[in-house]
Amino acid sequence: MDYNVELFAGDGFLLTRNDSHHYTLSFDTENKNILLSNIIDFPLVKLIYDLNTDIYEKVIFNKTSENEGNLIILVKHFFQDIGLPQRYAHVNIKKCVTEEKIVFDLYTIKNQRPIEIPDDVVLLDIEKLTINCMLITPHKVNICANIHVASDLDIPIFYEKMVGKIIYKIFNRLKQFIENVCI
């Protein structure tokens, strides 16, 4: 498998495979009508899923403190016809805010299966997902997501490209929402 491979580029987005279990997605978004640091928070994380109801069956977000929460996501069973299992994610999210960036670190919760998830659905083991929101100006932000999946997760190349398109769709909808919101 080749590394540092561009899986998707377009509309200001770049998705690359850095190694067999590490991917990076980056893009800029801008809205001159709002201070972006005011909206980059847990409700925006939830909005990502609300904007993509065609991708997710269920999303449950519980904020546990000012800077932490838990998220359960049940992804629709896109690849049932080719024998791949339906997936869910159960992650803890921690937020860190500095003057120049807002960072969300997500880690899979492995020791607790949510009761809302059917027994035949398989955990998508995300070792670590870091979303860095670098504030370029008060109205422009660079979003860079570093995705590390479990090393025992086998990701076929054809699957990788399809999932890349889904990831693009998810974040493109978020970008469009941010760029078009007026406050």
Explain what this protein looks like in three dimensions.
There is one protein chain. The chain is of the alpha+beta class and 183 residues long. The protein has a single domain, classed as START domain (Alpha-D-Glucose-1,6-Bisphosphate, Chain A, domain 4). Helices cover 18% and strands 45% of the residues. It contains two helices and ten strands; from the N terminus they run E-E-E-H-E-E-E-E-E-E-E-H. The chain has helices at 42-50, 157-180, and strands at 5-10, 13-19, 22-30, 56-65, 68-75, 87-97, 101-108, 122-123, 126-137, 140-149. Strands 1, 2, 3, 4, 5, 6, 7, 8, 9 and 10 form a ten-stranded mixed β-sheet that branches. The longest helix is centred in the C-terminal third of the chain and has 24 residues, at 157-180. It is globular, with a radius of gyration of 16 Å.
Walk me through the topology.
Blueprint: E1 5-10, E2 13-19, E3 22-30, H1 42-50, E4 56-65, E5 68-75, E6 87-97, E7 101-108, E8 122-123, E9 126-137, E10 140-149, H2 157-180
Parallel strand pairs: 6-8
Antiparallel strand pairs: 1-2, 2-3, 3-10, 4-5, 5-6, 6-7, 7-9, 9-10
Query: What is the second-level CATH architecture?
Result: 2-Layer Sandwich
- Largest sheet, strands/sense/barrel: 10 strands, mixed
Overall geometric form: globular
- Uncertain residue segments: none
Alpha-beta classification: alpha+beta
User: What oligomeric arrangement do these chains adopt?
Assistant: single chain
Total of domains: 1
Task: Compute the number of helices.
Answer: 2
The CATH fourth-level homologous superfamily: START domain
Number of strands: 10
